[in-house]
Amino acid sequence: MPKIRRLEIVVANPQIVYYPGQCIRGQVIVELNEAKKMRGIRVKCRGRAYIYWTEGSGDNKRHYSASQDYIDNSIVLFGKPPNVSEETILPAGNYSYPFEFVLPFGIPGSFEGPIYQGYVRYWLKATIDIPWKFDPEYKTLFTVASVLDLNTVPNVMASQQVSDSKTGVLLLL
């Protein structure tokens, strides 16, 4: 029987949909069958955008990618911070560690683009930092719904026109 029976994140909002500026509250639940040596238990809130695309074909094919972090915060729920190697023992039993993260204002809403093209994702991850072993983790995604008030956008009713062009250089050898 494993020492760690349960590692789970339970959020207070069962719909797991949030708006920029809102607070995410929840608990990390840990159940141990027997005492466990560890450095600590942490929870992380992360939001990240990633984009990937290719241009050209054959030998002229070029790959592009970029990423941007919107939130990357961690809280130590039990034990020491990750840069401290001091270990402690958590006795067998059931534990509940509350946490709270405030989402920044102005972050974009969650987005899933076409296959392998891009995304904006937000997640919570709980980790038990065990020395010299693989760290058990539990990850759960949540959705950020952005609200755009068109009343605040100047000239939103004006007609728009966009054009784009791309030029290349042909080299003759």
From TrEMBL:
InterPro entries: Arrestin-like_C, Arrestin-like_N, Arrestin_domain-protein, Ig_E-set
SUPFAM superfamilies: E set domains (SSF81296)
Gene Ontology cellular component list: cytoplasm
Alphabetical GO biological process terms: protein transport
Domain named Arrestin-like N-terminal: residues: 8-151
PANTHER family: ARRESTIN DOMAIN CONTAINING PROTEIN, ARRESTIN DOMAIN-CONTAINING PROTEIN 1
Family named by the database record: Belongs to the arrestin family.
Name of this chain's protein: Arrestin-like N-terminal domain-containing protein
Species of the source: Dreissena polymorpha (Zebra mussel)
Top-level taxonomy: Eukaryota, Metazoa, Spiralia, Lophotrochozoa, Mollusca
